[in-house]
C-alpha cells in the first residue's frame, strides 16, 4: 500500500481543512470564495494572491475528491523521486501557471466580446453598469444577448480548484513513467501513460475550444492545459537533473 509523503500529506490536509471550513463556518464558503478564488481582474473581488489561493478551494465533494485522489496517486510517487522541495516548487509553479493561462484566455475572450458589443452600439458605460449590477436590459438580438451573457459569466464566475497543478503532476508522471498504465474511474480500461495523457489533454483542448465538455459544465479547461504546459516545460528544463523513474508502475485509476 502506498504511504503518504510529507508534502503531499500537507497539501491534502490544507485542501481538506479549507473545504471543511467552507462547510462548517457560518458564511464561510461565501467569504472564502470571495477572498481566495481566482476572479477576473476587473472584478472587485480580484486580488493578486488568488493565483495561489484558488488551488486550495473546491466546488463540491466530487471536485475535491477527484483532485485529492489524483494528488495522492501521482504526487506521492513524484515526491519520493524528487524530494519534497522540488515537488512543491513544481506543484506551485504549475498551479500558478495554470491560473495565469486561464486569466489570459479570459482576458482575450472578454476583450473580444466587449469589442463586438461596442461595435453593435452598446456603450462601454452600459456594459460596465450591467456587469457591476448584474441587471440591465438585454439586447433583443439573440447573438448579442448570448455575447452579453458570456461576458457576464467571465466577469462573475471565479476559477477554483487544484486541477491545474494536478495536470502538471500528471504530465510529469507521464514523462518519467510513459509505460505505466492509467485509466479513468468511469472507463476502467488501462492505457499507457504516453497515450492516455495526450488523449486527456486533447479532450480538454477540444472542450475549451468548442464549449462541449464530457466532464460537465463550469470546467476551466484552459487552466488544465496551462498546468500541463508548465509541467512539460519544467520537465524539459529539469530533464538532465531528474533521474528517470524506476520502470513501469502498476495501474492507477484517475479522475
Topology of this protein?
Elements: H1 6-24, H2 28-36, H3 50-53, H4 61-82, H5 84-119, H6 124-133, H7 142-156, H8 163-176, E1 181-184, E2 187-192, H9 193-210, H10 221-237, E3 252-254
Parallel strand pairs: 1-3
Antiparallel strand pairs: 1-2
What's the rounded overall pLDDT mean?
86
Order of helices and strands: HHHHHHHHEEHHE
Assign the CATH architecture.
Answer: Up-down Bundle
DSSP strand tally: 3
Unreliable sequence segments = 244-255
CATH superfamily: Rhomboid-like
Largest sheet: 3 strands, mixed
Tell me the count of domains: 1
Describe this structure in words.
- Mean pLDDT is 86; it is low at 244-255.
- A hairpin with a 2-residue loop joins strand 1 and strand 2 (187-192).
- This protein has one domain (6-254): Rhomboid-like fold (Up-down Bundle).
- Helix 4 (61-82) packs parallel to helix 8 and helix 5 packs across helix 8.
- It is globular and about 60 Å long.
- It is built from ten helices and three strands.
- With 255 residues, it is mainly α.
- Strands 2-1-3 form a three-stranded mixed beta sheet.
State the gist of this model.
By secondary structure, this protein is mostly helical. It has 10 helices and 3 strands, in the order H-H-H-H-H-H-H-H-E-E-H-H-E.
Give the tags.
single chain, about 260 residues, mainly alpha, Rhomboid-like fold, about 5% strand, globular
Amino acid at each position: 500500500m502506498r504511504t503518504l509523503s510529507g508534502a503531499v500529506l500537507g497539501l491534502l490536509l490544507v485542501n481538506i481543512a479549507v473545504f471543511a471550513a467552507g462547510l462548517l463556518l457560518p458564511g464561510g464558503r461565501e467569504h472564502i470564495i470571495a477572498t481566495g478564488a481566482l476572479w477576473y481582474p476587473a472584478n472587485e473581488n480580484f486580488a493578486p494572491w488568488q493565483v495561489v489561493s484558488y488551488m486550495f478551494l473546491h466546488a463540491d465533494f466530487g471536485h475535491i475528491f477527484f483532485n485529492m485522489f489524483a494528488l495522492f496517486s501521482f504526487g506521492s510517487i513524484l515526491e519520493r523521486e524528487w524530494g519534497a522541495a522540488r515537488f512543491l516548487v513544481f506543484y506551485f509553479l504549475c498551479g500558478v501557471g495554470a491560473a495565469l493561462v486561464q486569466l489570459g484566455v479570459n482576458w482575450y475572450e472578454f476583450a473580444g466580446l466587449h469589442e463586438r458589443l461596442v461595435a453593435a452600439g452598446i456603450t462601454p458605460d452600459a456594459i460596465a453598469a450591467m456587469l457591476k449590477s448584474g441587471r440591465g436590459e438585454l439586447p433583443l438580438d439573440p447573438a448579442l444577448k448570448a455575447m452579453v451573457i458570456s461576458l457576464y459569466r467571465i466577469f462573475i464566475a471565479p476559477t477554483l480548484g487544484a486541477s491545474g497543478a494536478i495536470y502538471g503532476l500528471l504530465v510529469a508522471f507521464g514523462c518519467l513513467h510513459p509505460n505505466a498504465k492509467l485509466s479513468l474511474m468511469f472507463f476502467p480500461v488501462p492505457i499507457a501513460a504516453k497515450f492516455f495523457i495526450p488523449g486527456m489533454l486533447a479532450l480538454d483542448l477540444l472542450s475549451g475550444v468548442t464549449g462541449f465538455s464530457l466532464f460537465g459544465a463550469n470546467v476551466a479547461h484552459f487552466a488544465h492545459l496551462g498546468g500541463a504546459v508548465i509541467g512539460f516545460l519544467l520537465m524539459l528544463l529539469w530533464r538532465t537533473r531528474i533521474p528517470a523513474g524506476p520502470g513501469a508502475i502498476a495501474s492507477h485509476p484517475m479522475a
